[in-house]
């Protein structure tokens, strides 16, 4: 869009095109999108030429229903679809542009390798909205990644709700490890990441591939969701805490220094104080680098919302949420403090408030100063200061 002359604005009244990117995982996110869409109706009346596009998970197969509900929305873009928007913005939707979407100027890019989910965790709406798992063919992914690298991308993150079940629906059943072996030799590509892994589908072959492939970053996102076997069973996650901890052990032996992140839900129906304590114990025992915590939100149509009463009051969910956040910020502060004095490799992604920023291979956010023009460069930075959320350092050399 920038190529065809558009500029980003934070003042919605000034915008010619408004894109609202939606998420339906939690009710609060969906409610926010609906209220944002409503707030655009008076603006559309004043400025009928304003284009409103709704993107993301809210745009499902029931397009007619959406059109009826939001008649002031001009474009409905399914997840990953940008062609119509780019056409409207005056860009010819040639394949290359389609592939790189709106991320032309970033040295990092996301590449979806598998869509949908077959797991039906009892609380989750994703399989209902995004359908069953569909893997993209390795050849198609390979050529997209090569195209991105030709445009200056240095790091790709392979995406899927359940990325490590990749390939089971393709002929020859290539898996994620096979795909990593195929992408690693691409010249000019410096880093490969992937998100999100399901603990039950993480196998030894994948751990070995990560350990042996130089471009695959030592960082894994492995949602645990809860630290109690009863809750895990009610969630339908397909593993126990014992399986999960043993897997973490194997990852730590196989990939020394791997950064681990997880997702947890607090206030799942019936979660007792003791069961919640199980989640805190899990976080204390494993000491994740990052934890994403969410309060349980009943999603209409899911098994949990039909079978269990949402009986943990909101104030209690919020207390549990805060406890997780406080515990985790202490753990992350300690983990990050150990990096002080170490020199780490950063891929510079951009500038914020006059400082360069980028990430380590383990995904940690680092800020530093330099007069050089550095986006897209790999550099070495010596860490001087740390916090639970980011690091600051001194530029040592451009690699
Ligand atoms: N596929 C990944 C997995 O195996 O966990 C995660 C994808 S899910 C869309 C992203 C996160 O949203 C989940 O890890 C979970 O913590 C959270 N989430 C999903 N449904 C939720 C719900 N009904 N209430 C609260 N959090 C929810
Ligand atoms: Fe949702 Fe993830 Fe479970 Fe799939 S694996 S149902 S996306 S939480």
Oligomer: single chain
Secondary-structure-derived class:
alpha/beta
Unreliable segments of 5+ consecutive residues: 92-104
Report the helical percentage.
Answer: 25-40%
Structure overview:
This protein is of the alpha/beta class. 34% of the residues lie in helices and 22% in strands. It has 14 helices and 16 strands. It has helices spanning 27-39, 41-46, 63-69, 83-88, 95-100, 126-130, 138-150, 176-183, 204-212, 229-235, 241-254, 273-286, 303-307, 314-337, and strands spanning 17-22, 51-56, 75-77, 108-112, 114-115, 134-135, 155-159, 191-195, 219-221, 259-266, 290-295, 343-352, 355-359, 365-368, 378-386, 391-398. A 5-stranded mixed beta barrel has the order 12-13-14-16-15. A 3-stranded parallel β-sheet has the order 1-2-3, with helices on one face. A 3-stranded parallel β-sheet has the order 4-7-8, with helices on one face. α8 (176-183) links the parallel β7 and β8. It is globular, with a radius of gyration of 22 Å. The structure holds S-adenosylmethionine and iron/sulfur cluster. Residues 25-26, 123-124, 126, 161-162, 196, 198, 223, 225, 263, 265, 294, 296-297, 299 line the site of S-adenosylmethionine (SAM).
Quick structural summary:
The chain is 34% helix and 22% strand. It has helices at 27-39, 41-46, 63-69, 83-88, 95-100, 126-130, 138-150, 176-183, 204-212, 229-235, 241-254, 273-286, 303-307, 314-337; strands spanning 17-22, 51-56, 75-77, 108-112, 114-115, 134-135, 155-159, 191-195, 219-221, 259-266, 290-295, 343-352, 355-359, 365-368, 378-386, 391-398.
